């Protein structure tokens, strides 16, 4: 790809492959680039141009990339796809691989190997980052798996007292499925552990609303 990178919203340019006259080459979904690129560039076809606005968590996060990129920076990239080839795995193979990661994580959880379980769940989550060309049924399966993987990783994070990680995993699961009571309950536990009782109360109330609503539906 060719790209120009800018700090957002200032517009200060920090890098440009075009000005170096040297296209940038990398492998998708291998952790060689920031998460926003793995996700965003997977949707770009050869010859297409796109703008990517990358939140800090999907860019360089709290560490930044000194000296040109400060910590917690939002970035904007103007990208041109020159020669983009999809990963070798098909979508079906990726779903199968992520399912295996989930099962491995579950087995490690039962053995109380929580850190290793988190690694397995993370691997499953990463495997599902690339989903260009998925059918509607595959998309549904991917979203379901992503919810489970993030919710399970949150549980392991609670077990290791990594409460901030638990919050992030739960929020990702809830973004995908706002009515997931497991993720909501685990998020409330994380907030209680962080002594953020207002947030915990808000999440618990939301969880109770979902439970009451589900009970109402099943009673019909």
From TrEMBL:
InterPro entries: FKBP4/5/8-like (IPR050754), PPIase_dom_sf (IPR046357), PPIase_FKBP_dom (IPR001179), TPR-like_helical_dom_sf (IPR011990), TPR_rpt (IPR019734). SUPFAM superfamilies: FKBP-like, TPR-like. The keyword Isomerase applies. It comes from the Eukaryota. It catalyses: [protein]-peptidylproline (omega=180) = [protein]-peptidylproline (omega=0). Keywords: Isomerase, Repeat, Rotamase, TPR repeat. Its EC number is 5.2.1.8. This is peptidylprolyl isomerase. Residues 1-85 form the PPIase FKBP-type domain. GO terms for molecular function: peptidyl-prolyl cis-trans isomerase activity. The keyword Repeat applies. SMART domains: TPR.
């Amino acid at each position: 790809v060719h790209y120009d990178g800018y700090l957002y919203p200032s517009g200060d340019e920090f890098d440009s492959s075009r000005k170096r006259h040297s296209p940038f080459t990398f492998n998708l979904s291998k952790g060689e680039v920031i998460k926003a690129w793995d996700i965003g560039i997977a949707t770009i076809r050869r010859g297409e141009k796109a703008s990517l606005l990358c939140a800090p968590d999907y860019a360089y996060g709290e560490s930044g990339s000194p000296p040109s990129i400060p910590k917690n920076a939002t970035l904007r990239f103007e990208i041109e796809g020159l020669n983009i080839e999809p990963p070798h795995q098909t979508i079906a193979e990726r779903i199968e691989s992520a399912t295996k990661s989930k099962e491995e994580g579950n087995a490690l959880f039962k053995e109380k190997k929580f850190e290793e379980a988190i690694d397995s769940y993370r691997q499953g989550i990463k495997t599902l980052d690339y989903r260009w060309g998925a059918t509607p049924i595959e998309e549904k399966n991917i979203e379901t798996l992503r919810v489970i993987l993030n919710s399970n990783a949150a549980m392991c994070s609670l077990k290791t007292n990594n409460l901030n990680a638990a919050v992030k995993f739960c929020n990702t699961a809830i973004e995908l499925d706002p009515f997931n009571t497991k993720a909501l309950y685990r998020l409330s536990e994380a907030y209680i552990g962080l002594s953020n009782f207002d947030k915990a109360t808000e999440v618990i109330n939301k969880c109770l609303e979902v439970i009451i609503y589900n009970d109402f539906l099943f009673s019909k």
